[in-house]
Amino acid sequence: MNTDLEGSEAVTQGIRVVVEPQYFAERSVPEQGLWFFLYTVTISNEGLEKAKLVTRHWIITDGDGSQEEVKGPGVVGETPVLAPGESFSYTSGCPLSHPFGSMRGTYQMVAESGHSFDAEIATFELVGPYTVH
Asked: Would you say the C-alpha torsion 72, 76, 54, 38 has a positive or negative sign?
């Protein structure tokens, strides 16, 4: 059973980031302290010039308040370049040791003009089934 959760949306300098998380029961083993979530991200360029996604920075907060930061080049092995009006989507996953948590972060973008900026990934909740927090 996959449970769809409420996502998030943010726009920074013409880059819209929409996240749709879901609980992924097939990879979760609650009795062993593992809850697995998938999230699909759609990055859309609503600006006036091309922009390249260079790096990602995630802050993952587990249900006990502990945080993990994940930084690295691109997303899913790619550094997409988005022309105005173009979008890029990908799906990735996140394991937690508690049935709930949250994620937020930024994508470092470089515009065609050379200007770099951080596109916000607004906070979204990760909540397993039958969880009240």
From this structure: negative
Which secondary-structure segment (H or E) carries 7? none
Give the model confidence (pLDDT) of 21-56 as tens digits.
999 999 999 999 999 999 999 999 999 999 999 999
Output the pLDDT for position 132.
Answer: 53
User: What is the distance in angstroms between the CA of the first residue and the CA of the last residue of the chain?
Assistant: 21
- Residue 122 near residue 94 (C-beta atoms within 8 A): no
Give the SS3 label for residue 51: strand
In 3D space, the residue among 9, 19, 11, 13 whose CA is nearest the CA of residue 111 turns out to be 13
Q: What percent of the chain has pLDDT over 90?
A: 91
- Residue 7, Cα to own-chain centre: how many angstroms? 9
Distance CA 34, CA 4 (A): 18
